[in-house]
């Protein structure tokens, strides 16, 4: 087959291939004058001549822009000035005559540029923008030539120039030598004179912004880094965009950012950009878009879409490094922190806390549905377990692309977003299931564990939402639970972590659980907030049910209490930090969810003994080290061990089987004595307040020390004695512990025995004084003979000879009976060869405040006062004698209605509900809450709850009210117990117990005048405030429901107030400052009413008499309420009345006051009683002798 013939030109001599394009280097010459420059730049159809002139001009501009006035010498500076003069003269010579918008600057260059476009000469199409960009950059440095520069910029906006610019910007991607100079020229133009023509340039955006998004995609190609002197079109396009964003007005920015292709192209190839360009981009967008308050939020949202944020987050893995620039990952982190956590940046949307987007927290639900279905009546309550609709969907998409386990900064970013948008926590863990919490000791697992720890540590939103108060409906339990324990922290994973052999894994799990339980406690308290009681009753029930469901869900997701106990037991003894954390976790379980903790039947005694033994070992080691080389152990180790001990002591307080005074094989001393030893021998600088509280509580509970209501400082006497002896003779203290432990153990096993011994030791009729002395004194007397016969008797007796004088002296200083202590001192001295000393010495300086103003034990002063109070000073009723103490007691002292009858614990169980309420069995059981014995109070509380359940299930007519009263009383007792250092059923104020007893009689009689007020009080909240006196304000200040029932209600109030005034704590409630005045002050004002009936007035007098029987009561009445003046005024009121005038009614009980003469005698007797029982020194100093002048 023959060859095909070539179909070329007619002559057959045409070229067979496409001609090769050859780019010849332009020629140039040195410019010496402006005339020469003008000739070179004059328009010439010869394109080679035009290119020669432009290249010469470029070299001249480059030399001027490259100058450095600081380093150049005088000759170079002169050359620069000459060259600048050439350009200046050239520009002046080419300046148009009329300077308007249509004027054309540099006409020769513009004509050459236009001609190059017509003939399609690419070399000139590139050279002209290069020269113009350099010229504008030079002119921007001269204030004198700024008008010419602005004229050149306006020339670029003319139609012909816009067409050339548009053509150059849309050139083929391979012609970067045309695109890049054009972009540089536009950047210099938009920046010129502070963006003077930025606005007109944006109006011409059809040409000026032509193919901007495409040009941003023309990146540098090659293995070598991009040359900063020859930037790619992308670099020039980004710099032009950033300059435009800087100088454009807000509306123009909004329109520019609305172009999706431009916004997408900004960050498409950001990971390949040079460090300086990435920094410029991040800083420019942050400063001129995000932080510009004038830019609309919509424009910011268009910029920071999911794609942009994900691309920027990819800079966390940016690898290029520049020595002179900040770190790119750090800059990206700062940008994302600002963009994602600042609501004004357009990304973060206002959420509704833990309520998802589709949930209406204030929806109205029919009450019938709520009563029947409870939380199930809320259609969205169980809807969000697998998917959570969120408002911050952009942030949600960003979070799914972050890896918090691989970068601390990413972890910080996520937790910061969680903090400002808590709705994303549940959404994040539901969607992100790529990583589990299965224990595996690696850097990845540790990073993920740290991230989960920081997430759990985040606080719950206030009110669960963004409002100013709680919503009507509780948030979905699943979402609250995911905020407390995120989904990866399930029961299986946490259990494996706790039992893992790696200490770090177990420690991480323990710390996370501590935060979770604390967070659960906060959430439950928010569910139980009293603010919910202002809503309807059904909504309050919903919140309570939601709290219960939340606790149940937490128990299902967290490990079992037995696993935590076993994990704690397996921790090595030397891992103090881990042991402290594990003990704190167990303590939190006992305090927050005791129903779970108590299921394990955890015996804390062995662990407590181990902790005490470790502390003792550390103390001995400290002493050994200091004796050998003067070194000391780290005090932080002792502090951690002590903190662990505090946690175990708190758990022991919740444990009913704790044996405080029983020695074991591990400990030679009982736990209480060992704890006492730790306190005494602890190094300085360690906080011992919790240990001291426990010692006080246990000692008082076991009746080792006198009760505090008698003014005794408790265990402080023993502690101060040992502390002083430890300072002077540490060796003596060490030998005393076994002896003291034996005495303390015997005190707790038979306290009555030692009280009888003290009675035998004292004088007859000194029973009251016996109660002020510690039974430990009698136990020491009993055990001294045995100690003297022991093998180590010499060292023990030597230590006791130094300890006992201090102990007995401090006991006397603390207010214990000195005669009894002196008798005990004499009895103890017999067992010492040299005795203890001549007599008991009471230290003058001591930390105890001895109570003053107690009951007077003498009778002579009473007889003397009788002779002076019958008519000399009291001006009213001179012929009426005051009642003596016995008579006054028969008239005013009523039996204690709250006296404990322990048989009530058993009697009520066989009675019907009618008998419980009507025959007083319920009242007798309630009264046991005032018992001085904690065990009785605990049994009473349990039986009250059982009685409440029995009442609720009965057919009793008023069962709901009685059940509510008993339940709220029990809840009040629990709240009071929670405030104790060691959990116990704390003694409630007597006013609370008395109110409950009297309220039972009101509730069983619907016709009672106080029936509405008592019911209203019971519906206010789930428990009562122990700092307030129930219904006092309602009776004293509000009008009665029935018009003539005021005095009946007042009589009921005074009766229960009298029963409720028994201790010094009760007295504090009566004189505590309140909005309407102290209660005592209001009662005195009520009794001052001249029309009040005598029985009611005598009831107030009985309350005052009851106050005088309490320590410091009389002093308080005189100095704070002026009771002497008040009684004096009552006597004056009775002066004009006939002694035989009949009163308006009779009182109850023996010694009833029936006449005015009887009233006067009672008032005088009360004045006498107050003077006898008050702190006379204080009263005389307060009144400057005035009170004594009235009474004495």
TrEMBL record:
UniProt GO BP: maturation of 5.8S rRNA from tricistronic rRNA transcript (SSU-rRNA, 5.8S rRNA, LSU-rRNA); maturation of LSU-rRNA from tricistronic rRNA transcript (SSU-rRNA, 5.8S rRNA, LSU-rRNA)
Comp. bias intervals (Basic and acidic residues): 616-625
Pfam families: HEAT_URB1 (PF26140), NopRA1 (PF16201), Npa1 (PF11707)
Domain URB1 C-terminal: residue ranges: 925-1126
URB1 central HEAT repeat domain segment(s): 655-834
Region spans: Disordered: 1-28, 616-636, 838-875
GO CC terms of this entry: nucleolus
Comp. bias intervals (Polar residues): 857-869
The URB1 N-terminal domain, residue ranges: 106-448
InterPro entries, alphabetized: HEAT_URB1, URB1, URB1_C, URB1_N
Listed name of the protein: Ribosome 60S biogenesis N-terminal-domain-containing protein
Organism: Sordaria brevicollis
